[in-house]
Amino acid sequence: MIRQLTSIGRKSKNTLKQTSLAVLLTGSLLAASWAVPGSSVAHAASEGVFISKDSYFMLNRAALSSSSLQFSVLFHNGENQTLDFNKYGVRVTDGAGHSYTANLSEKKSGIVTGGQEESFRFYANLPAGVDAADLKVDVFRWDYNKSDFMNHLGELPVSSVIQEGQLEAPEEIISLRTLDSTLASDASLAFGLGQSVRVTENGKWYMYTQVAAKNLGSSSVKIPATLLARLVDANGMKYTATIASGADTAILPNQSDTLTLKTLISKGMPTSGLTLEYYYLNQSEDVSLGTLGMNSSLKMVALGVKESYAGQQDGENVTAKASSSTYSTQADGVHVQTVVTLSNDGDVVAPVPSLAASYQFGDSGSSVSSTDNSTRSGFLAPKETATYYFNATLPTGVDPNAAQLVLWQKAAASTGSTGSTAGSGTTGSTGSGSTTGSSGATTGTTGSTGSTGTTGSTGTTGSTGSTGSTTTSGQQPVAVFLLKGASVAQNGFTTAVDYELGSKLALGSSVVNANLDVSLIELHTHENDDLGYKTAIAKYKITNNGTSTLALPELQNELIDNKGNAYTGSRQSAAATQITPGSSYVVSYSYLLPNKETTADDSFALNVYDDKSVSEGNVSAGTFKVALQGEETGDTIAIYPFSLKVNDSSIGWTYSGGTYSYVLQLDMDITHEDQVIIDSNFSKIQFEMVDSLGRIVGTQDASLMGTGKLTSGSQRVTISGLKNEQVNNGIIVNMYEVINTPNGTAKRLLKQFK
After folding, report:
1. Each residue of 586-617: b (16+ CB within 10 Å) or e?
2. What is the DSSP string of 174-199?
3. Which of residues 535 and 228 earns the better pLDDT score?
4. Rounded distance, CA 113 to CA 86, Å?
5. Model-level pTM greater than 0.90?
């Protein structure tokens, strides 16, 4: 039943004329959040203060902490015209008749259009020990004809909207005048918890906690040095916290900044029931200012799950995810690689942070660090991603599934609040003072002491676009990923993709510039029983499709057989350092392979990787199925980019001046098949003469370019200085392609002449 109230304040004739009709509805309010849609909605039976038949105020939600009451007032406009909340005000009263100033805790216009409703958030600083059942929100209209300038319309019981489980405030509001009496009367900060992570550093356990500090006052403030914080566990043990970043930042009015607290904790500290307590020292006595429950703040992220990136700025929507984690058990420990993906899921460009990682395992505080030093863009456009690879070797016996990956932001900085606060506050007849600026009018509330409600706020004129001071603390954790679900790393031979010789290798940008194409042109092998190994020689064609000269990449690569054995490629000893636009360059690599049959079809996986960007191990840029090419049995020899056709050959010997010489007479056609750049570092041709006993009796070098190069037509290859006993009828001349590598000279047999 609706009960009409003729008066809530003093009963005077004047009052009755000027007081709007107030109707109190009894019941309870069920509200799920602070924010309410800006459209007309149906409400459960609630206590409300009506200013007309169709327009009313009611409490939307309230939360009581140890030092403040936070509440939300819903203003429903059922009229056909706009109503201005600035003509009204609210304050908090208790059963003993005390009143407390209600301060607006958000920047918002006070105008509510017809048929709509708006929710306005307030806070009031209260003495300790106040019971919610004893508190009411007094709603009034500003009236200068009254002695207290207020025409009281009705009261809303706070207990009607504080439900079970809502007693813990989402943030703690602290009046800074408690710590420094020289500050303005409205100097207050609202502290809200961000994420908390438990990490190990140098064998000790720490809790890092991010706290958002919002300036609710009308002037810039810094965190007072006398404001202290500590963690209190369920057993009452206290752990002193220090501010790791953000302590010296000036926070602008109505702006927020993020502080990071660092707390040394015991390894066995229970996390359930953990609270963050703010306090100050009054001589030798600790005086508590308020607490925040940390159960919802503690975070560890499962493998494959996206988490909002803790180090981002306001307006950004960057997420971090441990996409995969693989490991292999080897003789020196457990090799693990975790791939972390940073995604910009927002609509604005976001900076790319400099990240590092550490693997933590066990309760003793053990950890192994890891870095990814890849060169990447400094910014992420909307919908773009950045990938990080973190490799490490864990001690033998450590289960990677039980380990955690801590993601650290290097050189983490706390920057001052940014944005603009403009306008001039008005003091007087408006209930919530208006501050106009780029984001609209602000309904402010700074009431006078005692029983007065909300008077007009004093605005800060001007706009600010600069950032505050910056403090750096090396690195700070931004996420902890659980590696449960890590899988055994697969053999590169089994994961290799099909590849056609001569086609472009699909490689990651961390290995080659996006304007460079890399192709495998040749892959041959040479048997050498005397040395106990065989040599595979690969030639890569690199093409610059860009418009500027680029550095010639040093490809780190290996051949992997079907048993998982990897054979590292050695680049030719000398090569060009740059490649010009529109040109192609050939570079050779050699691989020392066991002098035995590796597979029935000489199949391998070519793994091209990056071993410079990570702290240890490597990151695969692509794995491809390849096979050793068989040697030509005909008269045409392929030495990319040349082809040599032997038309005729003969071997003879001559005697002159007491020495013998062997002469190989050749008739060849030499064709430059592909117009690529070759230089003096290109492979050479070597003719090796072997006697009937298999002994090398002499060699002669030749070239396919430069002075004295082999040409089409008839030519002689002479090997002189043979002794009498070296002359016999079983002479064989082996023709090799020779490449100088850091491991020595690599030779590929091209043809034998008898």
Report:
1. bbbbbbbbeeeebeeebbbbbbbbbeebbbeb
2. EEGGGT-TTS-TT-EEEEEEEEEEEE
3. 228
4. 13
5. no
